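Q: what sequence does this backbone want?
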């Protein structure tokens, strides 16, 4: 199988153009990617300072619980003093009851302190570990940010290499073919030329499909394409067909 040189070059040109398109899209997407990583770093930093804020909140809460406990405790002492000054039996019994109730309140406040204190201690215990984990994530993201920043240069370098290669190939293609190709490409065809692919039918018979639209290519056309005839079109989508030996191995 031997295609006319122009046709073979055109196929090569398209492969290059597709590579260049992919790289250029990657370059266009870089700012958004940088933005995303920056946002991720920001929220990690927020999470980090959030841990210190949470610690402060828990410490404040413990101080409040202590103050509440002390207030209830003083109240209990006051009731006990008042009891000594009561002469009336009914009032005495009422005060005794009040003291019992207040003892329960004091006990409840004491349990609150224990609970908050345990929570605080546990939080302090795991805090360094949590901070380290976030710190590590931040470093990783900063590294990713750096890499992504450098990537723009690398990608542009590759594009310029491919563009030079493209110029050389272009010189070998008839201008009328080039125009035709570029016109179709501008219309949004990233595949102006597509390989045909061998498939096996239900009866095990050989057939070829256009890989642009997946429709079956009539046998006589696929034969001519395989024999090296150029610019034969798919009857369904109108793309130019070609044949690559390696397709045979794909089954
Ligand atoms: Zn087609």
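A:
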């Amino acid at each position: 199988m031997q295609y006319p040189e122009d046709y073979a070059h055109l196929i090569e040109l398209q492969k290059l153009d597709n590579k260049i398109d992919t790289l250029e899209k990657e370059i266009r997407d870089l700012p958004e990617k940088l933005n995303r990583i920056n946002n991720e770093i920001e929220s990690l930093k927020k999470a980090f300072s959030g841990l210190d804020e949470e610690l402060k909140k828990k410490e404040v809460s413990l101080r409040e619980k202590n103050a509440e406990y002390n207030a209830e405790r003083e109240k209990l002492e006051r009731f006990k003093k008042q009891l000594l000054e009561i002469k009336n039996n009914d009032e005495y019994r009422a005060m005794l009851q009040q003291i019992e109730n207040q003892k329960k309140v004091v006990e409840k406040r004491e349990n609150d302190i224990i609970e908050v204190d345990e929570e605080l201690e546990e939080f302090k215990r795991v805090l360094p570990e949590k901070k380290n984990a976030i710190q590590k994530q931040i470093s990783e993201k900063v590294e990713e940010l750096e890499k992504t920043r450098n990537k723009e240069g690398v990608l542009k370098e590759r594009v310029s290499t491919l563009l030079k290669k493209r110029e050389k190939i272009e010189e070998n293609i008839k201008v009328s073919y080039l125009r035709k190709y570029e016109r179709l490409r501008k219309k949004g065809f990233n595949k102006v030329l597509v390989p045909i692919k061998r498939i096996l039918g239900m009866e095990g018979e050989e057939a070829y499909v256009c890989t642009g639209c997946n429709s079956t290519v009539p046998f006589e056309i696929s034969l001519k394409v395989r024999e090296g005839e150029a610019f034969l079109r798919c009857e369904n989508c109108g793309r130019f067909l070609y044949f690559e030996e390696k397709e045979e191995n794909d089954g």
